[in-house]
TrEMBL record:
One of its GO terms (cellular component) is nucleus. Residues 29-170 form the Runt domain. PROSITE patterns: RUNT. InterPro entries: AML1_Runt, p53-like_TF_DNA-bd_sf, p53/RUNT-type_TF_DNA-bd_sf, Runt_dom. This is Runt- transcription factor 1. It comes from Polyplax serrata (Common mouse louse). Keywords: Nucleus, Transcription, Transcription regulation. It holds the Pfam family Runt.
């Protein structure tokens, strides 16, 4: 009978190079999933969950450009409830609408998830002056109501303001503001409606203005 080395119970068994832990398998699956959907999905704090990339800045109570989804890399039963929460140190529980979904085929798709509560203005004080920062963002908490529950976070997910993103003020002002040119004005000939008009010298008189009176030189 031919024996394979290490299988007779006397010597050490050969290492199993194909054995993978659940974490390593999830990481390998995650890398492949992100490569298949570049720019669409983002990692969360859990290696078993990814979600849709949110816009960095958005207007309050406005429909997102793409439906928000949570994708489970591990086994999650269909019908499992998935909940999303948003908050930061200034607004610990931001108001959301349509923030629950049901898992189906490892994907929970939220129907018109909306961020109603604002994420905060993010002011900070410096020694010389108070300066407004770019604003704070919400951190999302994703809760999978499985047994046991799974919780993941999406840090600095989205900034929510009343007006949402808009063009820089400097650009807007440049387009709307037409500056007046001050300084010496050129002489205007032949425009009878111009109070600063100077008569044509060929007409034999020169009209000029002094404070409170008009004078002619002939």
């Amino acid at each position: 009978m031919r024996m394979h080395p290490g299988t007779d119970g006397e010597g050490p068994s050969p290492p199993d190079y194909h054995a993978l832990t659940a974490e390593a398998l999830a990481e390998r699956t995650l890398d492949g999933l992100l490569a298949e959907h570049p720019g669409e999905l983002v990692r969360t704090g859990s290696p078993h969950l990814v979600c849709t990339v949110l816009p960095p800045h958005w207007r309050s109570n406005k429909t997102l450009p793409v439906a928000f989804k949570v994708v489970a890399l591990g086994e999650v039963l269909d019908g499992t409830l998935v909940t999303v929460r948003a908050g930061n140190d200034e607004n610990f529980c931001g108001e959301l609408r349509n923030c629950t979904a049901v898992m189906k085929n490892q994907v929970a798709k939220f129907n018109d998830l909306r961020f109603v509560g604002r994420s905060g203005r993010g002011e900070r004080e410096r020694a010389e002056r108070t300066e407004k920062c770019r604003g704070k963002s919400f951190t999302l908490t994703i809760i999978i109501n499985s047994s046991p529950p799974q919780v993941a976070t999406y840090a600095k997910a989205i900034k929510v303001t009343v007006d949402g993103p808009r063009e820089p003020r400097s650009k807007t002002r440049h387009q709307q503001f037409h500056p007046f040119h001050f300084g010496p004005r050129p002489f205007h000939f032949g425009n009878p409606l111009d109070p600063q008009r100077v008569a044509d010298p060929m007409m034999g008189s020169l009209l000029f203005k002094l404070p409170g009176k008009h004078c002619h030189l002939v």
